[in-house]
């Protein structure tokens, strides 16, 4: 009898638990990170023509060496929940392939923000770490016409001059799901 009574109490307890409303267990919100990474995009300036080259010259544009580092989302802007903002920069790539100068972009104006200085500083720190192959204007000479068809059969490099080249780049700073993110017009995603 004792076993039946315990079994009956146990079943009643189980039945009672299944009928009682389920109270969701509160979950803690995810921790806010202290920083987020950014992306960038290059913007072509349609008003600036490339340097003039002759039939025997070619402009070789700078190419990134390795991965171009992203800007780090400023912690003070993240902690304050800053509104989305953009920073436009014009970078001048020197003859050595390093970023020689950084200016405000006339193509991608920066948006006003209480954290505009911090956003620009983060973008400038990133671009100053970038490295490129230098821009060049190369000049070729025609080789011999070996088959006598009136057309040179080869070209040879006669001269290569490194030049300074500029690019405009835009960084977009935003907070998504409590995380600082920066996108760029050059972002392939």
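Q: What amino acid sequence fits the structure above?
A:
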């Amino acid at each position: 009898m004792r076993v039946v009574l315990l079994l009956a109490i146990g079943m009643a307890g189980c039945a009672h638990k299944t009928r009682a409303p389920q109270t969701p267990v509160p979950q803690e919100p995810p921790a806010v990170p202290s920083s987020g990474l950014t992306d960038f995009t290059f913007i072509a300036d349609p008003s600036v023509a490339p340097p003039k080259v002759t039939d025997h010259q070619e402009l070789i544009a700078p190419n990134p060496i390795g991965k171009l580092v992203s800007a780090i989302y400023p912690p003070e802007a993240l902690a304050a929940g800053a509104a989305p903002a953009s920073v436009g920069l014009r970078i001048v790539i020197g003859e050595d392939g390093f970023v020689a100068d950084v200016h405000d972009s006339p193509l991608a104006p920066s948006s006003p923000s209480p954290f505009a200085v911090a956003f620009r500083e983060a973008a400038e720190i990133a671009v100053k770490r970038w490295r490129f192959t230098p821009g060049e204007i190369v000049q070729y000479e025609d080789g011999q016409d070996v088959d006598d068809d009136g057309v040179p059969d080869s070209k040879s490099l006669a001269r290569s001059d490194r030049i300074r080249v500029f690019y405009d780049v835009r960084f977009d700073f935003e907070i998504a799901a409590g995380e600082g993110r920066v996108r760029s017009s050059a972002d392939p995603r």
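Q: And what stands out in the fold?
A: Residues 60 and 136 are 5 Å apart (CA to CA).
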